[in-house]
Amino acid sequence: MSNCSKCDNTDHVAKAGFLRGKQRYYCKQCDVHFTVEIAGEKISRKPHQTTIIDIAKHLGVAPSTVSRALNNKAEINPATRQAILKVAYELDYKPNLLAQSLNRGETHTIGVIIPNIERPFFAGVLAGIQHMASNAGYRVIICQSNETHQTEILNVQALMASRVDGLLISHSKETSSFEHIKLHLNKGVPIVHFDRVCNELDTPKVIQEDFKGSFDLVEHLIEQGCKRIAIMAGPERLLISRTRFEGYVAALKKHGIAFDKELVYHSNFIKEESSIALNRWLNLPNPPDGIFTVHYANAIEMMVEVKKRKIKIPEEIAFVGFGDELIAELFDPSLTVFHLFPYQVGETAASLLIDNIIHKENFTHQYSKTVKGELIIRDSSLRKQL
Amino acid sequence: MSNCSKCDNTDHVAKAGFLRGKQRYYCKQCDVHFTVEIAGEKISRKPHQTTIIDIAKHLGVAPSTVSRALNNKAEINPATRQAILKVAYELDYKPNLLAQSLNRGETHTIGVIIPNIERPFFAGVLAGIQHMASNAGYRVIICQSNETHQTEILNVQALMASRVDGLLISHSKETSSFEHIKLHLNKGVPIVHFDRVCNELDTPKVIQEDFKGSFDLVEHLIEQGCKRIAIMAGPERLLISRTRFEGYVAALKKHGIAFDKELVYHSNFIKEESSIALNRWLNLPNPPDGIFTVHYANAIEMMVEVKKRKIKIPEEIAFVGFGDELIAELFDPSLTVFHLFPYQVGETAASLLIDNIIHKENFTHQYSKTVKGELIIRDSSLRKQL
DNA sequence: ACAGTTACCGCAAACGATTCCGATAGGTTT
DNA sequence: AAACCTATCGGAATCGTTTGCGGTAACTGT
Q: What phi and psi values does residue A116 have, to the nearest 5 degrees?
């Protein structure tokens, strides 16, 4: 029998079952339960990062004082402050951001959701976001939706669970319902859309010159003498696709060229689509003499095919597209593009979001900041001037 | 005068200075100080996410019980457990990851440091890391060193401050001292190197077939009849550059080709270097008939220049390089590469790290996992067979 | 000398979740 | 029926920081 933990006596002690593997006792007299500690086994002390309490003990002050000193608060004696700072340095104190975040209710982290990090455009955006964020003292957590609605929803949940201070999002090609965003928007979470924005939600947005870019590219083709211009448009659900499509239509209209449904193909970001669309067009009774692909990669892929067939670019078919990639410049023939600036998109979006986070209450929404693009005319569309 | 907060009497109350803007009083009798609360001004209640305590109150149980139910612990009545789960669902409870992390001492987050997210290789690696990490329930924080040593150090500090559970790193081209890593390694932080690894540190590493790739590419050039092979090597500080360089040297040696210092140029990832190196080589008394660039982009840039000069590829000069980019395939002429698999590198590194995190104690280091590459012979080096 | 004031600091309660213990109530054994 | 057990739950400490508020000593002016 063991000694009671209270009266240190064994007289009235009786066994009282097992608890988590240990024998349990009960002292009738003291009305107390207890288990016996297995001797030893208590040495495992973790390495332990220095905390504010360590500093406090070290100097014989209260943790609150240390906190005040470290955070440069008022009510503190400059002398003690210096002393604390010194010890903090000596003990290599690093504040525990988790504890800070928990206490302050903000994580100084922003979440980013993009369809795919491997797309150079988004990588560029990310770089811009990172740059702006880290300058403002914010960390960045990145999620990829992989172009699926479901994953996007999971991403949002994961980021909100991580208690990010704000959200930057470019929707997946599938996304047509926005409840998962609305939910958190209504709770007051700052959210900024970029590139693949949506109009149904009342968020600040960063877009590009999608309409103008399309319009300029198509008009350029027309000026080069193209009469039948095909368009490889983006997924229909995306607003950005529709806007670009409208630019195409508008340019045709302005120049009195009839719109032909046969010349429209809505891509879905699948690899084989380029050759499918191209073949369809080339087999038409009167095939196009100009092709506008919303995504530069499609133009390149098509040009590869067209070159194989010994069709002359740009004389027989001219190509233009949106893009920001080196390949457009280096490919032979070089591709005329409406050049995009993903880095700027990222910077703009991030700064908008951070503004929003900091001035949460009285944030006057600034909708639709537009990052300008640039029409770069190259060999794929530039026909010899007569 | 105001009523004492204790005796609720005004008799012995006297003013006692100002405290944070409010008038302060002192009750002699009760020996008590107090300030008067400005009426109102107390309504600002935050929206408040449901917590474990809300659930507990809702059911009249203790928070600890709720925690046990939610975490599927033993010692809990299935009935209460169901009840708790139900309420949790109804109240849309989401655990506060911050609080969990603080308590458990782990964040379920891994930090990644890469030189530049815009380099497609690293974007690919990131995608692999993300995939593996999110499957294992880990979040990912990404930092860019921008190829500078100083930023890399700051990155490490930032990530450690965020209390990441482990670190994945590919060093900047400048990094030649590794104290900033060693420091945390010694504290027991799991760290895995990938791609740009370093040998001075006792960490698991994920590398590629750098030696073999170089060797194969150069040997291929030799088999195609090249006698003088130039190399555009990487920054000298990087181990990966040195390894690749050694592969080059070894291939030359095997085939009895003399090593010529004139044919070596160490790149530093600066844009103009391609033309500088190329010009230098072309102006040599006996210029190279084969060029091996460690980075495919340099090969492409050089080929652009070479094409302008009407020098024939591959007949007069053949090109090969490391790479994983579409442009290598689409460029004219298509580039022979030792194809890399960044996504796999990322996956491997992440799984190694997560293994390391989970089995922290008894982790048997598995050094140098190698992700295999693939020699893809294309037009830039394939001379007409006689 | 004393009310009134200031400067500085400590205490303790948050933040949200986990977990070690001990406390019950109701069984089972002898 | 006493002795022992099990299942289940509550209390309180803990993680590391921040912060509201009260306490104390010393200082100011009259």
A: -160, 125
pLDDT in tens, chain A (386 residues): 577 767 777 777 887 777 777 778 887 777 777 777 555 444 444 567 899 999 999 899 999 999 999 988 877 888 889 999 999 999 999 999 999 999 999 999 999 999 999 999 999 999 999 999 999 999 999 999 999 999 999 999 999 999 999 999 999 999 989 999 999 998 889 999 999 999 899 899 999 999 999 999 999 999 999 999 999 999 998 999 999 999 999 999 999 999 999 999 999 888 889 999 999 999 999 999 999 999 999 999 999 999 999 999 999 999 999 988 888 988 889 999 999 999 999 999 999 999 999 887 666 666 789 999 999 999 999 986 64
Structure tokens belonging to residue B192: 């895995």
How is B69-90 classified by DSSP, letter by letter?
HHTT-SSS-HHHHHHHHHHHHH
Peptide bond into A314 cis (omega under 30): yes
CB contact under 8 A, B123 and A140: no
> How far is residue B158's CA from residue A14's CA, in Å, rounded to a whole number?
56
φ and ψ at B287, to 5 degrees? -65, 165
Say if CB B168 and CB B110 are below 8 A apart.
Answer: yes
Could you report how far apart the first and last alpha carbons of chain B are, in Å?
110
**Residue B140 one-letter amino acid:** V
Q: Which residue is nearest to nucleotide D6 (CA to C1')?
A: A17
Half-sphere exposure (CA, 13 Å, Cβ side) for A72?
A: 0
Strand pairing category for B32-35 and B22-27: antiparallel
Question: How far off is chain A from B251, nearest CA to CA, in Å?
Answer: 31
Using alpha carbons, select from A264, A258, A243 the residue that is nearest to residue A338. A243
Q: Do residues B275 and B305 make contact, with C-beta atoms less than 8 angstroms apart?
A: yes
User: Alpha-carbon distance B384 to A231, whole Å?
Assistant: 39
Whole-angstrom Cα distance, residue A123 to residue B385?
A: 41
Q: In chain B, which among 54-93 make CB contacts under 8 A with chain A?
A: none
Strands B374-376 and B336-339: antiparallel
B52 touches A: beta carbon within 8 Å: no
- Please tell me whether residue B377 adopts helix, strand or coil conformation: coil
Residues of chain B (5-64) having a beta carbon less than 7 angstroms from strand D: 5, 16, 19-20, 31-35, 37, 60-64
Which residues in window 81-120 of A are less than 7 A from strand D by Cβ? 93-96, 99-100, 102-104
B107 neighbors A110 (Cβ within 8 angstroms) = no
Find residues 147-206 of chain B whose CB sits inside 8 Å of chain A: 157-158, 160-163, 187-188
**Chain B residue with the nearest C-alpha to that of A110:** B141
| CA of A27, C1' of D21: distance in angstroms | 44
**pTM of this structure:** 0.90
Contacts of B130 in chain A (CB under 8 A): 117, 142-144
* Count helices and strands in chain A by DSSP H and E runs: 13, 15
